[in-house]
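Quarterly update from the structural biology core.
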Amino acid sequence: MALVVWNDNFSVQVAEIDTQHQKLIAIINELDDAIKANHSNEALGQVLAELLDYTKTHFEYEENLLSSNGYPMFDPHKAEHDALAEKVVFMGDIFAKGQNIDSGQLMNFLKFWIEEHILEIDKKYSSHLHSKGVH
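Predicted structure, tokenized:
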């Protein structure tokens, strides 16, 4: 069973961002599956690196879209992205150094992060972007 399941509640009503969020969820679920299947640290590291890379790509896209459309809460939104990215980078660094990461703690963090960020933070910009004609 997937750790996080996409449903319409996650939609911010912007097609490209919804697609990117679905990809993030898929990578988180892939990492969870790899942990449950006891894949090698190398395989887990590759999925974690993919998650980090895609998170950066998504944040850049979203930030550019919000900035170019004059989103009034841009600065706090970007600060939230920066804090989340920093934590994912920190976990990735720990893993890359061969130090143990509590996989349950990691997956709980990622589940909470993706759900809370989309449902609580990203939903706030949906109506603003729609008012600017972004769908």
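The chain has a mean pLDDT of 91.
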